[in-house]
Each structure stands twice: as C-alpha cells, then as structure tokens.
Amino acid sequence: MLAAAAGHESRGRCAFVRADRGPWPESREGAVSLTFDDGMASQLATAVPTLERHGLRATFYLNPRGDDWAERLAVWRAVAAAGHELGNHTCAHPCSRAFPWVVPGGALEDMTLEDMAADLDRAEERLSVLSGVPAGRSFAYPCYQDQVGFGSSRRSYVPLVAERFIAGRARGERANDPLRCDRHHLWSFPCERAGAAEMIGLCELGAAEGAWTILTLHGIQEGALSVQEADLAALCAHLGRARARLWTAPVAEVAARLAAWRAAGAPRDARRAEAR
Ligand SMILES: [Zn+2]
Fold first, then answer.
1. pTM score
2. Angle of the 251-264 helix axis to the 268-275 helix axis, nearest 10
3. Is residue 24 part of a domain?
4. Which residue, 110, 154, 175, 228, shows the most beta carbons closer than 10 Å to its own?
C-alpha cells in the first residue's frame, strides 16, 4: 500500500518503488512527519481532530506503563483505526539522571542494554494489542537520548532499536537526507513554543532539499513543551494545501517507503546506507 501510487517497475517486494525517481510518492518534493510524544490529553482533544480536518495522519508515541495501561490507553484505539501510527516510546520513559526530575534508580545511567531490551519488548507487546498492528512500528527515544549506563559502561541502544523497529526518531540539525540518514536514528526538530511560520519553514526547507522533515511536538496548549492550537492549525492547513508537493505521513510509513526505495537500488550510496 505504501508505494502503490508511485512508479511502475516490477522488482519483487519493491515492485512499485522506482529508485531513479527519488523516494517520495508521485514525485513529490519532500516528506513530512508530524510526531506527538507522551500520549497527552490535548493531542486527543485537539491534535487528532485538527490533523483529520486537513486529511493528515501522524505518529503518536505512547508509553504503555503500569498495570492499568490497557484501560488508560483504550481511547487511542480509535486513533490507530483512523490511520495514525501509535509508536513505541518505551514503557518507563527513561531519561538521563542529569535531569533533576528523573527518579534515582530509574535513569538511563542505571540501566543495562538487557533492561532496555526488556522494556522495549514489553511496550511492543502492549502496543501490538492496543493498535492491532503487530509489527513495523517506529520508536522515539525518550528525551532524544540513545544510551544506557554511565562512564566506561555507557552503551548506545540504537542497535536494539534497529533490531526491533522500522525507524527510530531522535533529534538533530536538519531534515533527513534520503540518501544519507540512519533510519534508526532519524533527526527531528523539537517544536516547543514554535510558531506556525517556523514549523512551516522547516517543512519547506526540507522539501527544497528533497528531504524528510520530522517535527516533534508535545502538548497543544498543555504542559511546558506546548504549541498554540492556532499554530498547529495553520501548519496542518499548509500541509493539507501543499499535499501535491509535500507528502505528510506517519514515520513508519515514510520509513518503509525509504527502505524500499533504497533496496530497489539505483543510487549506490543509498543502497550502502540501507545495508549497514
Ligand atoms: Zn517523551
């Protein structure tokens, strides 16, 4: 489904992706993914209806923690059924103990790779049940941090993400170059307190480079990392109007298309990036 509209070449499982035309469907200039972290109430109340008013689908990164996860998150089933992605954001949302609000014993510095793998797998089992999507999900690094341990025992957990997910969203400096990006350590722009013009500008700058812009949002007029409802609405209106040029889709969908494009083969650099 992901590539059904693009190209006509028949090459096994990559049948519809023409590498020589670039990765984005119907020769669009670039891709955009809107991502929302932590399952906040304002995302359900405001972001979902705003996105859908403009025909857009996004990725919502959830933490299925605690014994009551199934009841607490049941409301998200309808969001998945409407075509949005429910992404994995771990159960425990571990971050560095350098943050003063991180509970001692529960920080990334206190974890081993085995601890992280167990958390990722637990979250994955629960999100499979919740969303009805058994595999192919994307992941977002809590607090954008990708390492466990401390000092000489510090280790990257990017390989654990690469083994389990179609993509991993971190933070970075630019939109993702389809030839060069690491699908399991994608760059995104944190958008807290950003205005519509700034967010639209990031999407258009990425498109001018033929790249994939990922925006990270949290609350909509909720919490410390929020954006204003009017700014989100203006961003969605722009992306809706620009749909013939900009492909806006959930992270998992764009990542799957990118992987298929690389595997289909024309640009040698891209093929190497996918093989690593
Ligand atoms: Zn988070």
1. 0.91
2. 120
3. yes
4. 175
